[in-house]
Write a structure and sequence with these properties.
Length: 462
C-alpha cells in the first residue's frame, strides 16, 4: 500500500497533475462520485419493491431514502475535517470501502430497520467521498483549470441521476431488488483500485480532530432537519419544535466553540468570506429550486398531464441530459468568465424553464414538456460548475477540505429543504399544488440569480 502511494508526489495546492496522471486521478474521483450518486438514484426507484418484499408500510419505507441522505448531511463537515487530517485520498478510499461493505449489508437485510441502518452506513461512506471530492479536484487540476475539473464532476453527478432509474429498471426486470446494491461491488472494486493507485497525496492538517465539535455538528443538523421534516409531514408540532430548538442550540454552541480555531470543523472562517457565503447560498437556493421541480414533476405529469409511470420517467430524462450536454462548454468558460455572470445567466434560464412548465395547459404535447425540461436542465448545468468553482476559489489556501464539504452541504441542504417545502406545499395548498411547486421553483431560481448577480457589483467595487 505504501509503495502505491509513493508513486504520486506530495502536491501543493494549485500545482496540479499533468497529462495521463491527471486523467487517471480524475477518473478515480469520477468513479467514486458515480458510485455514491448512482446508488442513491437507484434506491429511490426500487423503494416500492423493497417495501413490498419486506412487508413494510410504504410511508415508513421512505426511511430507506431518508437514512442515506440524513447520514450524509450530518457526517459531511466532520468527515471533511477528518479528511484534512488523514489525507483527502485516504478519506476517499475509506469511503469507497465503507460504501461497498454497506452495500452487501443492504442486499442481505431482512427488515426495514436493518436496511435503513445499512443505508445510513452507506450514507456515511458516500459522505466520505463527497466531503473530499472537490478538494481532490483542487489538487488534481492547476488553479487556472479548476473549473474544468468541477464541470466534469457535475457531469458525473448528472449522469448518475440520469442512469439511476434506467439501471434500476433493468436490474429489477431480470433480478430481485438486492442486486441493485450488489452491482456496487464490481464498480466499487474498480473505483478503489484507481483511488489507491492514482489519487495524489496532499498536505495534512496536524491539529487533533475535534470530537466534541463533531458530536455537536451531528446533533445540530439532525435536530434541525428531522424537526423541519416532522413539521412538513405534520407529525406533531410540539415534538418537531423541540427538535428544532435542540438543533439550533447545538448549532449555536458549535459556532461559539469553533470561533477563533485554526482549521475549524464548522467553517466559521469561510462564512466570514463574503464571496464564499454568497456562492454557498446561491448553490443551496439552486438545489431548493431543482427539488421543487424534481419531486413534484412526477405527480404533475401523472395527475395533470395523464402520463403513465414509465412515460414519466422518460419525460424527466431531459433534465439530466441537458446538464450533461451543456457541462463541457461550461467547463471551458468557467475559468475565464466570472461566476457572477455565468451562474446568474444559468439560473435565469432555469427559472424561465420552470415558469414555462408551470404555464403548460393540461393537453400539452410530449414535445412541449420535453423542450421546457431540457431548457431548465441546461440552465442548471450552466449555473452549477461556475458557482462551485467560486466557492472553492474563495476559500483560503489550506481550507480546501472544508470548502469541498460545504459544496456538498449546499447541495444536500438544498435538496433536503426542497423536499420538505414540497411536502408543505402539498399539505397546505389545496388547489393546484403541482403548479404551485413549479411556480415556487421558478421564483426560487430567479431569487438565486439575483443574489448571484450581486457579486458583479462587489467585483466592480474591487
Amino acid at each position: 500500500m505504501s509503495r502505491l502511494f509513493a508513486r504520486t508526489p506530495l502536491l501543493i495546492e494549485g500545482q496540479g497533475l499533468e497529462g495521463s496522471a491527471r486523467a487517471r486521478a480524475m477518473f478515480a474521483v469520477a468513479l467514486s462520485v458515480l458510485l455514491s450518486v448512482l446508488d442513491y438514484a437507484i434506491a429511490n426507484v426500487a423503494l416500492p419493491t423493497i417495501a413490498d418484499d419486506l412487508h413494510a408500510d410504504r410511508a415508513a419505507s421512505i426511511w430507506v431514502v431518508n437514512a442515506y441522505q440524513m447520514a450524509s448531511v450530518m457526517a459531511l463537515l466532520p468527515l471533511a475535517s477528518l479528511g484534512a487530517r488523514v489525507g483527502f485520498a485516504r478519506m476517499c478510499q475509506i469511503g469507497i470501502g465503507v460504501f461497498v461493505v454497506a452495500s452487501v449489508w443492504c442486499a442481505t437485510a431482512h427488515s426495514l430497520l436493518e436496511i435503513s441502518l445499512a443505508r445510513a452506513l452507506q450514507g456515511i461512506g458516500g459522505a466520505c467521498i463527497m466531503s473530499v471530492n472537490i478538494a481532490l479536484v483542487r489538487f488534481i487540476y492547476p488553479h487556472a483549470a479548476i473549473g474544468r475539473g468541477i464541470a466534469i464532476n457535475g457531469i458525473v453527478v448528472a449522469a448518475g441521476v440520469a442512469l439511476g432509474p434506467t439501471i434500476a429498471a433493468l436490474v429489477l426486470y431480470v433480478a430481485r431488488w438486492p442486486w441493485i446494491f450488489l452491482i456496487n461491488l464490481p464498480l466499487g472494486a474498480v473505483a478503489l483500485f484507481f483511488a489507491v493507485t492514482t489519487l495524489p497525496r496532499t498536505p495534512r492538517v496536524e491539529t487533533p480532530f475535534d470530537w466534541r465539535s463533531a458530536a455537536l455538528n451531528v446533533v445540530a443538523f439532525s435536530g434541525v432537519i428531522v424537526g423541519i421534516d416532522s413539521l412538513a409531514h405534520q407529525a406533531g408540532a410540539a415534538q418537531a419544535s423541540a427538535l428544532i430548538v435542540v438543533g439550533a442550540v447545538a448549532l449555536a454552541a458549535l459556532v461559539l466553540r469553533q470561533r477563533g480555531r485554526p482549521n475549524p470543523m464548522f467553517p466559521v472562517d469561510l462564512l466570514g468570506v463574503p464571496d464564499f457565503v454568497v456562492a454557498f447560498l446561491v448553490g443551496m437556493m439552486g438545489f431548493i429550486a431543482s427539488n421543487f421541480f424534481i419531486i413534484s414533476m412526477p405527480f404533475t405529469l401523472q395527475s395533470l398531464f395523464g402520463r403513465t409511470p414509465s412515460q414519466t420517467g422518460l419525460l424527466i430524462t431531459p433534465w439530466p441530459v441537458g446538464i450533461v450536454l451543456i457541462s463541457p462548454l461550461v467547463g471551458r468558460i468557467a475559468d475565464r468568465v466570472p461566476a457572477s455572470v455565468v451562474s446568474s445567466c444559468g439560473l435565469l434560464v432555469t427559472s424561465f424553464g420552470f415558469l414555462m412548465l408551470s404555464l403548460l395547459p393540461a393537453d400539452a404535447t410530449t414535445l412541449d414538456i420535453i423542450w421546457r425540461i431540457g431548457i431548465a436542465g441546461m440552465g442548471f448545468g450552466i449555473f452549477q460548475a461556475p458557482n462551485n468553482r467560486a466557492m472553492m476559489v474563495a476559500a483560503p489556501r489550506g481550507r480546501a477540505g472544508s470548502a469541498s464539504g460545504m459544496v456538498s452541504v449546499a447541495r444536500l441542504m438544498g435538496q433536503t429543504l426542497g423536499a420538505m417545502l414540497v411536502a408543505l406545499t402539498f399539505a397546505f395548498v389545496a388547489q393546484q399544488a403541482n403548479r404551485r411547486c413549479l411556480e415556487f421553483a421558478s421564483v426560487t431560481a430567479l431569487l438565486a440569480a439575483i443574489l448571484s448577480a450581486t457579486r458583479l457589483r462587489r467585483r466592480a467595487a474591487h
